[in-house]
Amino acid sequence: MGSLNQISMWKEEDNKLKAEFKFTDFNEAFAFISSVALAAEKANHHPFWSNVYNQVNIELTTHDAGNTITDKDKSLAEAIDNIYLKYK
Question: Which range of residues forms the domain containing residue 78?
Fold first, then answer.
């Protein structure tokens, strides 16, 4: 598990990890979302996200820890980064 320094696409803001991901088109963004959904379900840790055309914004926080950043968020952020790298 990495630290925030190792999670290059993420920033910490308002007790959340936030990242923005851009793709070539909507289909690629949706495929990314589908892959992230599988990783999130496996981790039993579900993000807040939005998607407009080729852009996906994701926020991670641990609700049952008082809406703060925990190792669960950092681990899922790393998994999301690894998924995103497959598109680059």
Answer: 14-85
